[in-house]
């Protein structure tokens, strides 16, 4: 039990130090055009890619045939182009040099705009009524 507490304490300390070090260093944003960032976001928001995987249209409407699916896809692309939110789970991981599902800090900053976040939380994905499927319609 004492060993487990020690491991947890050391892990928290290491992550805290890494986070503080990342906060002190300015992020180097790659020089990328709006067109290139938009293309990268469209790809990332497509079904089967990182953002498209956890969006409801990724499983319920991967070809974006429904108006709701297209609307959610457009919202994903818009959020991908915005500055990163102030609070999100993977922030500590990517800022400390780690990766999130294969995406590094430079990958994230290659799509997201620099500047003050427009939102503090990335949001919650819900399933609109017109994208819900029961087992009889699949």
Structural commentary:
The protein has 138 residues and is mainly α. It has one domain (32-131). It is built from seven helices and no strands. The protein has helices spanning 2-24, 34-45, 50-54, 56-60, 67-81, 91-95, 105-111. The chain is globular and about 40 Å long. The relative contact order is 0.16. Residues 6-25 have low confidence and may be disordered.
Brief synopsis:
The protein is mainly alpha-helical.
Task: Outline the secondary-structure elements.
Layout: H1 2-24, H2 34-45, H3 50-54, H4 56-60, H5 67-81, H6 91-95, H7 105-111
User: What oligomeric state best describes the polypeptide chains here?
Assistant: single chain
Q: Helix fraction?
A: 40-55%
Could you state the order of secondary-structure elements as H and E?
HHHHHHH
How would the global form be characterised? globular
Number of E strands: 0
Q: Kindly name the structural category.
A: mainly alpha
Tell me, rounded to a whole number, the average pLDDT: 74
Keywords:
mainly alpha, about 140 residues, single chain, globular
């Amino acid at each position: 039990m004492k060993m487990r507490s020690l491991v947890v304490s050391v892990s928290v300390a290491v992550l805290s130090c890494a986070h503080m070090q990342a906060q002190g260093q300015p992020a180097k944003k790659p020089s990328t055009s709006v067109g290139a960032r938009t293309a990268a976001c469209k790809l990332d928001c497509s079904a089967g890619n990182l953002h498209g995987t956890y969006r409801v249209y990724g499983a319920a409407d991967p070809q974006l045939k429904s108006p709701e699916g297209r609307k959610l896809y457009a919202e994903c692309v818009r959020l991908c182009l915005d500055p990163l939110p102030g609070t999100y789970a993977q922030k500590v991981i990517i800022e400390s040099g780690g990766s999130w599902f294969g995406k590094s800090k430079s990958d994230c900053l290659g799509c997201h705009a620099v500047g003050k976040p427009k939102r503090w939380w990335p949001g919650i994905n819900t399933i609109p009524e017109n994208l819900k499927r029961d087992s009889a319609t699949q």
